[in-house]
Write a structure and sequence with these properties.
The complex is a heterodimer of chains A (about 100) and B (about 325). With about 100 residues, chain A is mostly helical. Chain A has a single domain (about 10-95), classed as Non-ribosomal Peptide Synthetase Peptidyl Carrier Protein, Chain A. Helix content of chain A is about 50%, strand content about 0%. Chain B has about 325 residues and is an alpha/beta fold. Chain B folds into two domains: about 1-110 and about 280-320, Isopropylmalate Dehydrogenase (3-Layer(aba) Sandwich); about 110-275, Isopropylmalate Dehydrogenase (3-Layer(aba) Sandwich), CATH 3.40.718. Chain B is about 45% helix and about 15% strand. In chain B, strand 5 and strand 6 form a beta hairpin. In chain B, helix 4 packs parallel to helix 5. Chain B is globular, with a radius of gyration of 20 Å. Classes of the chains: A mainly alpha (about 100), B alpha/beta (about 325). The interface between A and B is medium-sized, with 12 and 18 residues.
Chain lengths: ~100, ~325
């Protein structure tokens, strides 16, 4: 067994991470967050809260996907929880940082 | 006490006036560490945390903090987070100062959103603390309750008032006045224990001795703050112009100066050393962009006082 081969992160796991970090930042229950919700319209997340989320995700996922980073120019496209989960999933599968 | 980290490059008059203010504070006996470009310590003869980048006034706060990791603002916030400084102060980009403090120090557990608290001078009395003065353009009613708690702690510690009177800024004193946000917040505040809530206040009450903490959303608070600042400047300018309009008035104006100058000083925002970002896990002072030596000295004094009085722990206890 190779110790170097990272285990790919599953989409459900990413959803759980996004939900937990977002709940910490917004001081709400994780169970109250679902994929269809808009960050701004449904969760009252302002731009700084989204940057808190991005930095938390980068920190948590950098161990699993070396150099994982969410590009600033992509942030404007992440409008819902689903957008964020899909984005992180795709980036992690492509090994992108 | 650990030194207070001062962003040497933040503000319209940086670094000259900032360094001059730091020297005055050091003479007052307060330990300070500058955060700025390498080499600055030789000119200033002070301790330095090196930071090679600067976040300009016009830069988008979140992106700037994310991308300029060796900026003075980010390094100052990290110094507090890492236990190398007891507080941070900047007269630079307000949004970026807030972002750096929030992202590096983090929020106090339970705080929904940090808020900017600004003392508004009141002639002949202690200032009224206005919050939020610009951190959150849109808010929820329950956030205003937290602002009231945080503002009460700050006012108690800063101005020694045991039970600060908290007013909700609205368009009439009756409970039913205002928009839906104000009406809902009124109910929540009235039902909250541990606050000396006196009901709605109007804009004209802020500079009177009828309230100690004026709670509002960041949009309204910022408009209020800038309106009061502009109004006070206009009045001073008009008075000086009136004094100068006829040589016969000059002599009388001169006679009034001993009464007018202390009043002017008491109404000068520089006297109160800037705004405080409440709700982050550390002391963060946001000074005005036009901060000069006196204002910086006072801001450092306020930071030291808030550290010594363990303001962050008091807010933590009030929010828990």
């Amino acid at each position: 067994m190779s110790a170097d081969a990272p285990v790919p992160i599953q989409r459900d796991e990413i959803l759980g991470i996004v939900r937990d970090r977002l709940a910490d930042i917004l001081e709400i229950e994780p169970s109250g967050i679902n994929e269809g919700q808009s960050f701004v319209d449904d969760l009252d997340a302002d731009s700084l809260a989204l940057i808190e989320l991005v930095e938390a995700l980068e920190e948590e996922l950098s161990d699993r996907t070396v150099g994982f980073r969410i590009d600033d120019e992509d942030l404007a496209d992440l409008k819902t929880v689903r957008d964020a989960v899909d984005y992180v999933y795709e980036r992690s599968r492509s090994g992108a940082g | 006490m650990l030194p207070i980290a001062v962003d040497a490059m933040g503000g319209d008059k940086a670094p000259g006036e900032i360094l001059a203010g730091v020297r005055l504070a050091v003479d007052d006996g307060i330990p300070v560490v500058l955060v700025g470009p390498p080499g600055l310590e030789h000119d200033a003869d002070l301790a330095l945390i090196a930071a090679s980048e600067l976040i300009a006034m016009h830069e988008e706060p979140g992106a700037a903090v994310r991308n300029k990791k060796d900026s003075t603002l980010v390094r100052a916030a990290e110094a507090v987070r890492d236990g190398n400084a007891s507080a941070m102060i900047s007269a630079g980009n307000t949004g970026a100062t807030m972002a750096a403090a929030l992202l590096r120090m983090g929020r106090i557990k339970g705080v929904k959103r940090p808020a900017i608290a600004t003392p508004i001078p009141v002639p002949g009395s202690t200032p009224t603390v206005l919050l939020d003065a610009g951190a959150n353009a849109e808010v929820q009613p329950e956030w205003l309750v937290q602002f009231a708690h945080m503002g009460s702690v700050y006012t108690r510690q800063r101005f020694g008032l045991p039970e600060p009177r908290v007013g909700l800024l609205s368009i009439g004193e009756e409970p039913g006045k205002g928009d839906s946000l104000r009406k809902e917040a009124f109910k929540l505040l009235a039902d909250t224990n541990g606050l000396n809530f006196i009901g709605n206040i109007e804009g004209r009450d802020i500079m009177s001795d009828s309230v100690d903490v004026a709670v509002t959303d960041g949009f309204t608070g910022n408009v209020t703050l800038k309106t009061l600042e502009g109004g006070m400047k206009a009045i001073v300018k008009a008075l000086l112009a009136a004094f100068a309009s006829d040589p016969a008035y000059a002599e009388h104006a001169e006679a009034l100066m001993p009464a007018l100058l202390p009043l002017y000083a008491s109404l000068d925002p520089d006297t109160y050393g800037g705004a405080v970002l409440l709700g982050v896990d550390g002391v963060c002072i946001i000074s005005h962009g036009s901060t000069g030596a006196t204002a910086m000295r006072n801001a450092i004094g306020v930071a030291a006082e808030m550290v010594e009085q363990r303001m962050v722990d008091e807010i933590r206890a009030a929010i828990a």
